[in-house]
UniProtKB/TrEMBL annotation:
Domain SWIM-type: 553-601
Cellular location(s): Nucleus
Originating organism: Cocos nucifera (Coconut palm)
InterPro entries according to UniProt: FAR1_DNA_bnd_dom, FHY3/FAR1, HTH_FAR1-11-like, MULE_transposase_dom, Znf_PMZ, Znf_SWIM
Protein name: Protein FAR1-RELATED SEQUENCE
Keyword Zinc: yes
């Protein structure tokens, strides 16, 4: 069962009557149906896709989706409207395959032959019609990678059923479509605490949602089962057991860190914890952190927060986790103070959070020297609840315009185009539009370019953060086990990150321009950082340069007759800066400065503009020579070899011949290695992490360019 990290929706406008429906916007997240007889004890994302009966067109061959989950979401909504359920059938591929899982078959729930009944059960069961009847309805999707972009394409679709279909209005009673959303679970527990019985709770929810009796996504029996399971929880005793678990983990791993407070008589109030590897990761990459406080342990009525970061390879890394008693400002202040103590009182340069007023006030007091910004993907998630009803069919156009405007170059452009957008969509008197504009300095990119955010100002990292704990926390996870389960998730993600990093180091780096500074950057930066750099250097070729005064330049797009950015380039001390503040915000030189460097015949990037946090030599993973490390490194290399050598028959024959000779040579070598130790850390929690220099890799470039770089170094040395 999947983890359900639920997102609480308290509107920052302060109006108690302003209710954000979490089910209306988490459409990019598809979660397995929750078993209705179990309480949601975990931090979980509400089931959203199945909660809204969206009318969708029939799938067709050639239709593409961003992910297999999105395809399943689409087909599930189509099935719900047509009176049947969807079941995952066969899939092809595995984690060892270069493409991973590359094909999936989604079928009608009645597909396949009837399941055989065991001899012992046949006598106990009454005769009934088998659910499976060899129905041929299906949708087959296949992974397609083109120009580095992954899409899932429909390669086969059939909607021919050999059985009766239910009316779409009756589909809600299918077990797969009955569920209690995270928002409803929170409301149910609140009503139950107020003394309402099951019947009153059902009527209250029907009135609040404006639906007729029987139109909720769950029945009275489902509600009774949920409440009965929730009643079995004893938060006080589990809080004590959680502290015992932390103490035991501390005795096992002395570098494990945790802090807590108690209230009344030894009742757990707040708890924050981190692991040894996470603390070391923060020392390297704690310049920008993401503090996500939109999680909640519903059955314990406790909010929770998680601190994340981004390493030099663009991977999401865990720093710290906290479970609080409530959402009061003092609780958030304690969380921030505990986080700093766990991280040896090192303040982050910047922090991103949800649009939350109480948290904003707590950060201004607890982290006065840290720049605070609101996460754009949390902000985008609130837009449907604020504007979809009032804008109707114009909402999608508004959302696209909002996202475009938030990333404009200058504050003047932003304010001018914002005012125009408000007029165009008739939002002059809208309280949420006024709220967004009044706090624009917290989320609009033109106001944030002076601070380093490491690429987190875009929505690119949202999915990786949401899926960080998926599969490790489920509805059966108890409060007393949460520290251990989070630790397992962190360890798993660290191993996945290490393997992905190894694979990146084996990939060919394609140089796309003839500029030596691109070649230079490819030898220093990680694959992730180099892609950001390469995007800027390719765009730099579209700009014209005008020298306005000595060592000052106006850089403007060649299709524009006005505007542009001023670049100051002082060669004597290798200083270069641009008014767009791109380097200050991302740590990567912007297209304007790169255009000027190219014009001034600069063949090497000044050392100070190759940040240590983006270099290959900054590694979170321990140096190791044990069996586990060797096996993983060879698997990663083999995956690349398979991918490259299977393209043509000549490549295949060449690789096969050399591998056969290599295998014979390896078999003749000694089977023991006395010089190397196979002892390795049992997990990333207690690993001793070294910052190790990675081997510089440059591939796919003519030798003459390398020669130019070498000559340039010699010329600079002689001068």
């Amino acid at each position: 069962m999947k983890a359900h990290w639920s997102h609480k929706q308290r509107c920052p406008c302060g109006d108690d009557q302003c209710y954000l429906d979490a089910e209306s916007y988490e459409e990019d997240e598809l979660v397995e149906p929750m078993h209705l007889t179990e309480p949601n004890l975990s931090l979980g994302t509400p089931q959203t896709s199945l909660g809204v009966n969206k009318i969708v067109a029939s799938p067709y061959v050639g239709q593409s989706f961003q992910s297999d989950d999105e395809a399943l979401d689409y087909y599930t909504n189509f099935a719900r409207n047509n009176g049947f359920l969807v079941r995952r059938e066969r899939s092809k591929g595995n984690p060892e395959h270069p493409l991973g899982v590359y094909k999936r078959e989604l079928v009608c729930h009645r597909a396949g032959p009837p399941l055989p009944i065991k001899s012992g059960e046949a006598k106990r069961q009454r005769k009934k019609k088998p659910s499976r009847c060899k129905c041929d309805a299906q949708m087959v999707i296949k992974k397609n990678i083109s120009a580095g972009i992954t899409r899932w394409v429909v390669v086969n679709f059939s909607n021919v059923h050999n059985h009766e279909l239910l009316d779409s209005n009756d589909a809600q009673y299918f077990p797969g479509y009955r569920y209690i959303s995270a928002v409803d679970r929170e409301r149910i527990l609140a009503l139950a605490k107020g003394g309402c019985n099951v019947n009153l709770i059902m009527r209250a929810l029907e009135m609040e949602k404006g639906v007729r009796p029987g139109e909720l996504t769950f029945t009275e029996k489902d509600l009774k089962n949920f409440l009965q399971a929730s009643m079995s929880i004893n938060p006080e005793s589990e809080g004590s057991e959680l502290l015992k678990a932390c103490k035991a983990m501390k005795e096992k791993n002395p570098d494990f860190r945790y802090e807590f407070t108690l209230y009344e008589i030894n009742k757990l109030e707040h708890l924050a914890w981190s692991y040894a590897g996470s603390v070391r990761a923060y020392k390297l990459f704690g310049d920008v952190v993401f503090f996500d406080t939109t999680y909640c342990l519903h059955s314990y009525d406790r909010p929770a927060g998680v601190w994340f970061g981004v390493d030099n390879h663009g991977h999401t890394i865990f720093f710290c986790c906290v479970v609080l008693l409530d959402e009061k400002p003092d609780s958030y202040k304690w969380a921030l103070q505990a986080f700093l103590r766990l991280m040896d009182k090192k303040f982050p340069q910047t922090i991103l959070t949800d649009f939350h007023m109480g948290l904003k006030d707590a950060i201004s007091v607890g982290l006065p020297s840290t720049k605070h910004a609101f996460s754009i993907w949390h902000l985008m998630s609130k837009l449907p609840g604020w504007f979809s009803a009032s804008l109707g069919p114009q909402y999608e156009k508004f959302k696209s315009e909002f996202y475009r405007i938030h990333d404009l170059d200058t504050e003047e452009e932003f304010e001018h185009q914002w005012n125009q957008m408000v007029v165009d969509f008739g939002l002059g008197s809208d309280k949420h539009a006024a709220l967004l504009f009044s706090y624009r300095s917290y989320w609009a990119v033109p106001y944030l370019r002076n601070w380093f955010f490491g690429g987190l100002l875009t929505t690119g990292h949202s999915m990786s953060i949401r899926s960080f704990f998926r599969g490790f926390l489920n509805s059966q996870t108890r409060l007393k086990d949460i520290v251990e389960q989070v630790g397992v998730a962190v360890d798993f993600q660290n191993q996945a990150g290490e393997e992905a990093t190894t694979q990146q180091s084996q990939q060919n780096i394609k140089i796309r321009t003839c500029l030596p500074i691109e070649e230079h950057a490819s030898t220093i930066l990680t694959h992730y950082a180099f892609e950001m750099f390469q995007k800027e250097i390719m765009l730099s070729t579209q700009f014209a340069v005008f020298e306005t005064s000595r060592e000052n330049y106006l850089v403007r797009h060649h299709l524009k007759s006005d505007g542009g950015h001023m670049v100051s380039c002082i060669a004597s001390n290798e200083d270069i800066c641009c008014t767009c503040r791109g380097f200050e915000c991302t740590g990567i030189l912007c297209r304007h400065t790169l255009r000027v460097l190219s014009l001034k015949n600069c063949f090497l990037i000044p050392e100070k503009y190759l940040l240590h946090r983006w270099r290959r030599e900054s590694s979170l993973f321990p140096r190791s020579s044990g069996y586990k490390y060797r096996s993983q490194a060879l698997r990663s290399l083999a995956s690349i070899i398979i991918q490259e050598s299977s393209i043509t028959k000549d490549r295949f024959d060449y690789v096969q011949w050399h591998l056969s000779r290599l295998l014979n040579h390896v078999r003749d070598m000694p089977a023991t290695d006395e010089a190397a130790s196979d002892l390795e850390p049992s997990s990333s929690f207690d690993a001793t992490v070294d910052v190790v220099p990675a081997r510089s890799i440059t591939r796919g470039r003519p030798r003459k360019i390398r020669g130019i770089v070498k000559v340039t170094k010699e010329m600079q040395a002689s001068s």
